[in-house]
């Protein structure tokens, strides 16, 4: 899982920067201020969780656990569902995908909870 989490972290970080630049330069004149803010929220959460995934990967080097694997998977799922649904909503206008966004948010919460439990279980 270490290699996969590191590669996904790099991928999501790279695409997060690219999407943020795309929003700032390519979408500014095409989207309403409200939709641009929604898109930027997707980018923001993607970047935060790309870094969280990087942290999960590094922590798994020192204290591998099933909880860390679940946390990493939950962060990936959260990025795909939360950020992805916001991108599709703003770029394509499929409003019904908005129902997926909270599921991605719950995945983020599960990831953070699993990371916290994993830290709790670490022996000093």
Automatic annotation (TrEMBL):
Q: Provide one Gene Ontology cellular component.
A: plasma membrane
Q: Recite the UniProt keywords alphabetically.
A: Membrane, Transmembrane, Transmembrane helix
This protein's membrane topology, according to the annotation, is: Multi-pass membrane protein
Instruction: Please give the start and end residues of each transmembrane region.
Output: 47-63, 70-93, 99-120
Q: Highest taxon of the source? A: Bacteria
Write out the annotated subcellular location.
Membrane
Indicate the family of this protein.
Answer: Belongs to the UPF0382 family.
Indicate what this protein is called per its UniProt record: Uncharacterized membrane protein YgdD, TMEM256/DUF423 family
Recorded source organism is Pseudomonas kuykendallii
